[in-house]
Each structure stands twice: as C-alpha cells, then as structure tokens.
Design a protein that fits this description.
8 helices; alpha/beta; 6-stranded mixed β-sheet; 43% helix; Alpha-D-Glucose-1,6-Bisphosphate, Chain A, domain 3; globular
Length: 214
C-alpha cells in the first residue's frame, strides 16, 4: 500500500496543476522521498494567525495553490457573513519576501473572482498601513502576505477583519472551518473576466501619514 504522502503527491501530477509544479513533484517522487514526505504528509495548517510555512510544492508548503485554497475559504466565510452587502471589499498588502507579490496577486484574483472589490498595493507596504487601508476604504477584511521574523524560506498569509485587526473569535475558527473544506484547486475560483481590482499606492500613503501624524 502506498503511503498517504505519496498518494497526495501523485494527485499533484494531474492537469489541475501547472507544468512547472508537476515537474517538481515528479522530481521529488523520483529523487527525494524525504522532502516529498515533508511536502505532502499533511495540509498546511490554517491557524488563528493564518498560514505560515516553507515555500515549495505540496500540500504542506506555501505555494499558489495553498494560497488560493486558503483565500477561497476566507471568501466563502466572508460571503456568508456579509451577505447583505452588494459588494464585499478587501485590501491586500505584502512584504519583500520571495513570491510575496505573486501570492498577493493570486489572493486578489481569487477574491475578485468571488465578486469582491480588491484594493491591492502597487508595491510592498507595512502591516500597520494595511490595517489603516482596511478602515480607510471601509473594507470588510484584508490579507497581509508576510512571514514576519521567520527565515527566508518561509512565507505567510495573515487574515484581517473590518476593524483592521487580525481575525479573532468567532471569525478565526469559522474561517478555519471554511478553509478546511477546500481540498482541491478545482474548488477555487482563480480568475474571472473584468476583475474588480483597484491598484493603490501613493494616495493611500499620503492619507496614512497625514492621519498618524495628527
């Protein structure tokens, strides 16, 4: 009987995943079973602080698919929680780590494909400015792509609520429940025509600096 991690890895050889990802998974299957097991023995845990993990292919790694699935879970919860709104709004920022910009764009695309308006910074911004931006635009939530103090191999995904703070009870556990229901990229809306993504930058910087200095 095949070990569970190998079964999980072989599922990533399907057409749901891009060619580069499939190639890397095939390499690990053929050449590095230890790394393969580390990458696939479990799903990267979405905890009260969001996601945090080593970047790479696999269910236990930070990559475009785990970020997309986490975002779909967050979006599903927000749609249920704010169903009285015509348009849910979120803000997204990111740090200078490898792949942070890509993960932020994927996060924006998934939210937009779910019918959200997304405010996405044009370049990296600090976490306090994201918190401000959520309140500035009257957003219902936001995401910061960062792994804080962790080593360079890591990245992370922190979810925020409409008050500009990281999600707390009961939203944190409810979001976790929704994220756990997303087990395949097929469940994720990764793109749509005419996404409602607004690029933000200097104007928000000026408003932020003005408000924190008065």
């Amino acid at each position: 009987m095949k070990p569970n991690y190998l079964v999980a890895a072989e599922s990533w050889l399907s057409d749901e995943y891009d060619a580069q990802t499939r190639e890397r998974v095939r390499y690990l299957i053929d050449n590095d079973r230890k790394e393969l097991e580390e990458s696939f023995y479990r799903h990267l845990e979405f905890g009260t602080g969001g996601l945090r993990g080593i970047m790479g292919v696999g269910t236990n790694r930070m990559n475009k698919y785990t970020v997309g699935m986490a975002t779909q879970g967050v979006a599903n919860y927000m749609k249920a929680n704010f169903k009285n709104l015509d348009k849910i709004k979120v803000a997204i920022s990111y740090d200078c780590r490898n792949n942070s910009r890509e993960f932020a764009q994927i996060t924006a695309n998934v939210f937009a494909a779910n019918g959200f308006r997304v405010y996405l910074f044009d370049s990296l911004r600090p976490t306090p400015e994201l918190s401000y931006t959520i309140r500035h635009f009257g957003c219902q939530g936001g995401v910061m792509i960062t792994a804080s103090h962790n080593p360079k191999e890591y990245n992370g995904y922190k979810a925020y609520w409409e008050d500009g703070a990281q999600v707390t009870s009961p939203h944190d556990t409810n979001i976790i429940d929704q994220v756990l229901k997303i087990t395949s990229p097929a469940q994720v809306l990764f793109s749509c025509e005419n996404p409602d993504i607004v690029t933000i930058g200097e104007d928000v910087d000026k408003a932020y600096l003005k408000d924190i200095s008065t």
